[in-house]
Design goal:
The protein has 221 residues and is mostly helical. It contains ten helices and no strands.
Length: 221
C-alpha cells in the first residue's frame, strides 16, 4: 500500500516523513499481515524510511502500537488535573476519559484500529498490563486526591478498576460493531455515566453519627 505511493525520487530530493506517517503505515501493515509476521525492516521499507529513522521515532515495533495510547493517557492526566474542583469526581473522570479519547481519535486516524491488534496478538497482550496499569493509576490518583485517600486504598482502586473495565468493554464493542467515532464516544459517555452513578456514593465524605460529614470537603462535591 505505502510502496505504491513511494515512487522514485528526484535527485537530491529528500523523502518527507514523520512519526505519524510511519505509524499509519505500520498499523495497516500489522493489521493485514499479523503482528508476529511483520518485522521492523518490513515496516521501514513500507514507510520508505531506514531502520535508523524508524528507531529514532519508535524504540520498538510494539511502541508503534502503544504510542498513541500512551499519548492519550498523558492527555487524560492533563484533563483530570484541570478539572474544576466543584465538579463531582465521577463526572470529572467521565469527561476526561471522553475528552482524551476524542482528542486521540481526532488526531490519530488509526488510533482505534490498534485495539484490534491487541485482541489478536499474544505478544501485545503480554505488554498490555503495564500500559493499562498506568491508565488505571491515573484515574485512581485523581479519585484519591479528591476524597483525601491514598491511591492504593480500596475506594480509588475499586473505582479506577470499574472505570477501566467500562472503557475496555466499549472499545471492544467498537471493534465488533464497527460504528462511527461519534457513536463510540456517545456509547462511552452513557456507559461511564451509568457506572459513575453507581460509584458516586463511594466518593462522598463519610457521615458522622449526627448525619454531618466527618471529613473536610474534598473540593469535588
Amino acid at each position: 500500500m505505502a510502496g505504491a505511493r513511494n515512487g522514485p525520487r528526484g535527485a537530491g530530493r529528500p523523502r518527507v516523513t514523520s512519526p505519524e506517517a510511519v505509524e499509519q503505515v505500520a498499523i495497516q501493515l500489522l493489521l493485514r499481515e499479523g503482528y508476529a509476521n511483520v518485522s521492523v525492516d518490513q515496516i521501514a521499507a513500507a514507510a520508505g524510511v531506514g531502520r535508523t529513522t524508524f528507531f529514532r521515532y519508535f524504540p520498538s515495533k510494539a511502541a508503534v502500537v502503544w504510542s498513541a495510547f500512551d499519548h492519550a493517557n498523558r492527555r487524560l492526566a492533563e484533563l483530570l488535573a484541570r478539572a474544576d474542583g466543584a465538579c463531582p469526581p465521577m463526572t470529572a473522570v467521565r469527561e476526561a476519559i471522553v475528552g482524551s479519547t476524542r482528542d486521540a481519535v481526532d488526531t490519530r486516524g488509526v488510533w482505534l484500529e490498534r485495539f484490534q491488534l491487541l485482541d489478536t496478538s499474544t505478544a501485545l497482550r503480554a505488554s498490555a498490563a503495564e500500559h493499562w496499569e498506568t491508565w488505571r493509576a491515573t484515574v485512581a490518583a485523581f479519585i484519591a486526591q479528591r476524597i483525601g485517600a491514598a491511591s492504593q486504598d480500596v475506594v480509588p482502586t475499586a473505582i479506577a478498576g470499574a472505570v477501566q473495565g467500562t472503557y475496555i468493554a466499549e472499545l471492544r464493542s467498537w471493534l465488533l460493531l464497527t460504528t462511527t467515532t461519534d457513536d463510540l464516544l456517545e456509547r462511552l459517555r452513557r456507559s461511564l455515566t451509568t457506572v459513575g452513578d453507581v460509584l458516586d456514593a463511594l466518593t462522598a465524605p463519610p457521615q458522622g453519627a449526627d448525619g454531618a460529614s466527618s471529613a473536610p470537603p474534598s473540593g469535588g462535591r
